[in-house]
């Protein structure tokens, strides 16, 4: 029987996700459960380190990569130890090459499959479908992301909420970063207006996750089809479409129309992204984009078609009918929407 999975979700570093995880783990240990720390990142925060006192910790293993010795979580040791509950911090972490899996959430899947309960932590900006939105809100592009399905796989998502003003106070008091990093943080990611926006995103995400877990939720009634291009604009369409599908409680198909000269590396990048957001990838070859889209939409029972913003029309293209209008004429029974802006 697989273990249970609890994720502590926050809007930003320093809200207290790891501290709360440790506090709940201490309560579990006091009740008689066998609890170990698989991986803990205190970031030099004394109060967080103190909260771990008395809990057994699995030593990290050293991995050599390009002549540098790195420390990573020891997955085989955790599986051999087989505790009842294992704490594995920082869900979005990318592992060093040479260990069992490229990402920590893959390690966690192995631990859960072994029948071990897991507590983990993540900030909302690391969810793949929110990557563009967070970059627009804060001006910071998060590089380490996790598939949205990680939250849906969890048995419980615990939101660690903190008023933005209180988080800024913690930052100024040196409880999050060392003094040298505070000014840049206050003028960047940790501006109050950024934190307020991230807090709203976190609250909305948890509400959506709770709705998705409802046992009495209605069956899927909507099917969305996103038309993506092989560029960064296409990635934005996929992420925005994934958010729309989540809000509507629908399934998402992503259609990419390719030609003989389509760049393979861009196609692979889109393939990885579609997998990350839990959508279905459809690759069609041809020149008649609208004809292909129309056929696929009817075959899949599409109720919404989602597009990126139109490209500026140049030359004789100015006199042709815009893509959006052609799709509206071809699929009058389907709701067609533009979902991303440059």
Can you summarize this structure?
With 342 residues, this protein is of the alpha/beta class. Helices cover 40% and strands 19% of the residues.
Topology:
Layout: E1 5-10, H1 17-30, E2 35-39, H2 46-51, E3 56-57, E4 61-65, E5 68-72, H3 75-81, E6 85-88, H4 104-113, E7 117-123, H5 131-138, H6 149-153, E8 156-159, H7 164-172, H8 182-187, H9 192-213, E9 223-228, H10 232-248, E10 251-258, H11 264-276, E11 280-285, H12 289-300, E12 304-307, H13 323-330, E13 335-338
Parallel strand pairs: 1-7, 1-8, 2-3, 2-6, 6-7, 9-10, 9-12, 10-11, 12-13
Antiparallel strand pairs: 4-5
Helix pairs in contact: 12-13
Number of strands: 13
Strand line-up of the largest beta sheet: 3-2-6-7-1-8
Total discrete domains = 2
The H-and-E topology, N to C, reads as: EHEHEEEHEHEHHEHHHEHEHEHEHE
Oligomer: single chain
Characterize the biggest β-sheet: 6 strands, parallel
CATH architectural arrangement of the largest domain: 3-Layer(aba) Sandwich
Helix percentage range: 40-55%
Q: Using only CA atoms, what is the Rg? A: 23 Å
What are the low-pLDDT stretches, counting only 5+ consecutive residues below 50? Answer: none
CATH top level of the largest domain?
Alpha Beta
- Average pLDDT number: 87
**Gap from first CA to last CA:** 46 Å
**Structural class of the helix and strand makeup?**
alpha/beta
The number of helical elements comes to 13
Strand content: 15-25%
């Amino acid at each position: 029987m697989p273990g249970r999975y609890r994720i502590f979700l926050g809007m930003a570093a320093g809200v207290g996700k790891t501290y709360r995880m440790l506090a709940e783990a201490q309560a579990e240990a006091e009740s008689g459960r066998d609890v170990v720390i698989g991986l803990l990142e205190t970031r030099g925060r004394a109060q967080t380190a103190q909260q771990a006192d008395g809990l057994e910790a699995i030593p990290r293993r050293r991995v050599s990569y390009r002549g540098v010795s790195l420390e990573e979580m020891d997955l085989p040791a955790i599986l051999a130890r087989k505790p009842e509950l294992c704490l594995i911090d920082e869900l979005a972490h990318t592992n060093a090459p040479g260990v069992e899996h490229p990402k920590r959430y893959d390690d966690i899947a192995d631990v859960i499959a072994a029948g071990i309960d897991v507590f983990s932590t993540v900030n909302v900006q690391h969810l793949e479908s929110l990557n563009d939105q967070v970059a627009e809100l804060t001006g910071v592009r998060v590089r380490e992301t996790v598939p949205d399905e990680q939250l849906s796989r969890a048995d419980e998502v615990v939101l660690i909420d903190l008023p933005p003003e209180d988080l800024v106070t913690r930052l100024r008091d040196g409880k999050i970063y060392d003094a040298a990093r505070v000014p840049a943080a206050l003028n960047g990611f940790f501006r109050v207006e950024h934190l307020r926006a991230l807090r709203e995103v976190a609250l909305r995400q948890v509400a959506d996750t709770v709705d998705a877990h409802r046992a009495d939720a209605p069956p899927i009634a909507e099917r969305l089809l996103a038309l993506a291009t092989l560029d960064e604009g296409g990635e934005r369409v996929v992420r925005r479409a994934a958010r729309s599908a989540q809000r509507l409680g629908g399934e998402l198909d992503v259609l990419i129309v390719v030609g003989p000269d389509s760049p393979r590396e861009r196609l692979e990048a889109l393939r990885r992204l579609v997998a990350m957001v839990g959508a279905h990838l459809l690759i069609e070859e041809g020149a008649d984009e609208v004809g292909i889209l129309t056929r696929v939409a009817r075959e899949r029972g599409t109720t919404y078609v989602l597009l990126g913003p139109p490209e500026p029309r140049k030359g004789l293209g100015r006199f042709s009918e815009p893509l959006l209008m052609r799709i509206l004429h071809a699929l009058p029974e389907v709701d067609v929407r533009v979902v991303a802006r440059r």
